Amino acid sequence: MENASKALLMAAGFLMGLLILSLMVYLFVSFGSNAEEMRGQIERDRLAQFNSQFTSYQGKEGITIYDIITVAGFATENNKYYGFNKKTISVNSNYGDYYVAVVLQGKGQIEYGSGDTTDNIQTKYNDLITETLDNMNHSSNPDDSELVQYNCQTYLSEATGRVYLVMFTPK
Prior knowledge:
four-stranded mixed beta sheet, 4 strands, single chain
């Protein structure tokens, strides 16, 4: 009788251990999948936040040269962060990296990369603003007395889901 009672206690202990081990495995898998979901959600939020810096201008009324310089500044910061030198990008050159190009119709690409100094970039942007203001002030057409307004079109990379090209065209 004594041996049977010990055998039952051992079996109960074994079953309890198996139950605890099963519970630990379940919790590990459950927490692991939740952590993966959280990581995925954080990454999607970061991507949406990054893209919104550029896509918020698409369809917006009253985009001026100042807005374009702001967008080009965001793109330049991104390109410098990833260590990219200036690349030539077209609508069809959908790269799988994180380079962002900003194109102003008639001027070409106006973003820069890690190969350009901050002072050089600032000078080029100031020259672009000055040229726009000079064209506005020297125009004989009274309708040109206001800043030129632009339309914006953004392009998302199929590989990364990130904006890789922002094009501005005069209205």
